[in-house]
Amino acid sequence: xxxxxxxxxxxxxxxxxxxxxxxxxxxxxxxxxxxxxxxxxxxxxxxxxxxxxxxxxxxxxxxxxxxxxxxxxxxxxxxxxxxxxxxxxxxxxxxxxxxxxxxxxxxxxxxxxxxxxxxxxxxxxxxxxxxxxxxxxxxxxxxxxxxxxxxxxxxxxxxxxxxxxxxxxxxxxxxxxxxxxxxxxxxxxxxxxxxxxxxxxxxxxxxxxxxxxxxxxxxxxxxxxxxxxx
Amino acid sequence: xxxxxxxxxxxxxxxxxxxxxxxxxxxxxxxxxxxxxxxxxxxxxxxxxxxxxxxxxxxxxxxxxxxxxxxxxxxxxxxxxxxxxxxxxxxxxxxxxxxxxxxxxxxxxxxxxxxxxxxxxxxxxxxxxxxxxxxxxxxxxxxxxxxxxxxxxxxxxxxxxxxxxxxxxxxxxxxxxxxxxxxxxxxxxxxxxxxxxxxxxxxxxxxxxxxxxxxxxxxxxxxxxxxxxxxxxxxxxxxxxxxxxxxxxxxxxxxxxxxxxxxxxxxxxxxxxxxxxxxxx
Lengths: 230, 281
What we know:
heterodimer, A: mainly alpha, MetI-like fold, 10 helices, globular, B: alpha+beta, D-Maltodextrin-Binding Protein, domain 2, 2 domains, nine-stranded mixed β-sheet, 12 helices, 13 strands, 24% strand
């Protein structure tokens, strides 16, 4: 109970730093999810619609990559983006750009796997019809993506949840630099390490509120759009 | 109007502008340097105190990546930092000898303290470091080790060696190797009422002490010097030598020394500027 009131008072006294940290977290994760959607939706629907040798393995791999450990992604990207690594000349290591790359890497397979599932489900009753229209595979896929567009909001939200809550990758490639690459999760971890548990929890409340707000916004949008065009 | 399409479009625009924006910040790097340093300096709050002063004077933005000393030196070896500010003299000397830096500057020092539960089951209070560590091993008192090749970890290993303890043979359940920074190690020790070696800076600013108190301090072997090195631009052409050197020069200047001295937590000074000696390879 005492802890609870302490958290409340810390919440009250959070300064502008927290706003900029939350804003950075949001920017990085939303950008990463957008990249994930741009890459993942075509990839997932391609696998759902087209038949090619090794498709079963591709699906299994895609599903497995939903569980890609963030710290491994971080480490691999660190080695790639390091000045001694193949893409070192980009100078992206320890910048928000590197964090976006890491979270996009985590988001893409998740979006692709969920897209594949919903497109495959809709293909069961829509596929025959589309094929009979003589549409090419990309057009069939596009028609089915359009058909399941509201379900894809869930995929986007799942990817956002994965991106904004992860710490393993952003810590390694971002470096948790104060005022530059410090995100909500790395800030919470830092305060925990400093033993300031009530501040860490207050930041946790801010992060949770952020996630809830984004989800509420998405569900409002979805309901509105479904009413108008469903 | 197609609201869904509009929203998707604005999301896309946000993503693109976000990437462009972030790339700009990434490439506006002419006046910023990356300093690989230790968790002790970051978590104590020292950088938050001195970096704004340096920035005001020179306009150079210093981005601190806080790692253990071993990891910080590794990052510098890969060319991912311009300057290192660390505290493990043998590891620093190796870094110099390998040619990754051409000069080491004494910046500041503080000291290590042996921290433990106030009940002090191994009765080490007030002893010298050597006797204290020998007693800890003999009593198999719970001890938390950083275990992360940090400067503090190096100092702890030297303390066991000086005390004549053969750690690989002596270690057991009592020796808890957490492999993390100073803060998490302190959190662990506080939860388990264990002993540990901490740097005074992190200890003073640490808030979750629980039952822990300082038991051994002031022994000359607990001296903890911090050194700064500019990563050799000949090894890594990407190193911002001019700005990096400016930062080091500022740290050891009268102004930098005053900035370091004026950093206090609870009225106590955490770091003491060095007397300005430098060392070559």
